Amino acid sequence: MRCLGGIRATWPVAAVAVVLAACTLPPLESATPTPSPTPTLVPTPTPSPSPEPATPSAEPTPDPAAIPDFAAGEIVASLIDGLRVRQRPGLSATVIPGLLPLNAEMEVIMGPFPVDDFGWYLVGDADPAEPQFGEGWVAAGYEPDPFLRATGRAAQEVPYLTAMAATGDAEEGPIEIGEGDHAIRWIARDPEAIRCSFAVSLAPPGGEPVQTIRATIGSGIDRGTLQPQTFDALGVRGTAFVSVVSDCTWALVVLRVVEPDPSQSAAP
User: Fold this and answer.
1) 87 CA to centre of own chain
2) What is the rounded CA–CA span in Å between residue 91 and residue 49?
3) For the chain, what are the domain ranges?
4) For residues 79 and 151, what is the distance between their CA atoms, to the nearest angstrom?
5) In degrees rounded to 5, what are phi and psi of residue 240?
6) Given 20, 48, 80, 189, which residue has the most CB atoms within 10 angstroms?
7) Which stretches does DSSP call E strand in 218-263?
8) What dotted CATH number matches 159-259?
């Protein structure tokens, strides 16, 4: 701003100050806004998809032929410390109190009976050491790492005439059904958990079979005993063949009934 003419001495001091201020201050200019820089878009690289983790395949069911094969009356021993004895075959069955130590001896009664991808044997206690039990089911494992091993010995008095185990039909014999009480103990289940049939007959050589057991198995495990009175009623004595007609998985044993040893604890 430029001032024209002088300043009169007669002007009030305040007016002089205003005029001086007006002469010395530069004109106000409106600030020109600085445009914000336009950001340059940098393309974000698309991440490569991570490979899907491999889904582990289920463990294959071991070959049933790899289940150790033991005969009824054979003495076997545990190959692991802490082997469980169960009231029924299967991993969910009740465990009989007391775990078997390494090299505990048992007498085989019947089996193997496959449940939960293991072959199970019904065994009796044949070891004087603790724990004591009457009988129960133990898993045999699979070769080359089984849970049971053969000892090369058998019980002193073997009451078993024959023991069988299969899925489907089978025949065994001849066996000799002499005087005295005899029984057939059996267990069966349907592999498809729907329903299957189980029938057992005894027949003399060249003779007509006599049906001794007939059962329909549902979704669970069934077991039973053909009592000695049935043998007498059916007149099944002498030389005979055992025949099973079934679409179940099953095991059985034909045995002479002996008086229980009072020194042994009762079976669970």
Assistant:
1) 17
2) 42
3) 64-157, 159-259
4) 11
5) -150, 155
6) 189
7) 221-226, 238-246, 249-256
8) 2.60.120.230
Q: What is the reported pTM?
A: 0.74
The CATH number given to 64-157 is 2.30.30.40
The tokens for 253 are 């044993």
C-beta neighbour count of 260 within 10 angstroms: 10
Q: Which of 256, 78, 114 is nearest to 187 (CA)?
A: 114
pLDDT (tens place) for every residue of the chain, 268 residues total: 444 444 443 434 433 333 333 434 444 444 444 454 554 444 555 544 443 333 333 354 578 889 999 999 999 999 999 999 999 999 999 999 889 999 999 999 999 999 999 999 999 999 999 999 999 999 999 999 999 999 999 999 899 999 999 999 999 999 999 888 899 999 999 999 889 999 999 998 888 999 999 999 998 999 999 988 777 788 788 899 999 999 999 999 999 987 666 555 444 3
